[in-house]
Amino acid sequence: xxxxxxxxxxxxxxxxxxxxxxxxxxxxxxxxxxxxxxxxxxxxxxxxxxxxxxxxxxxxxxxxxxxxxxxxxxxxxxx
Length: 79
Hints:
With 79 residues, this protein is α+β, with helices and mostly antiparallel strands. 37% of the residues lie in helices and 19% in strands. It has 4 helices and 3 strands. It has helices at 6-11, 13-21, 41-48, 53-58, and strands at residues 2-5, 26-30, 33-38. It has a 3-stranded mixed beta sheet. The longest helix has 9 residues, at 13-21. This is Antitoxin. Antitoxin component of a type II toxin-antitoxin (TA) system.
């Protein structure tokens, strides 16, 4: 992945986009700090459809007894 200054990215935008379409994203910097990433649309679609870890856990086909019982933590009020 290449780093390119914003000024240079503006001047060569067509080339930056062509590279992104070929699988070579670019990090756009401003005053030496990363500000944005240019990547191909297909790659963006792939990354934007990745489910969150929480959603994956909630969708897991678990049965009773698949997870260990909780040890410690909340105190039993009858003790």
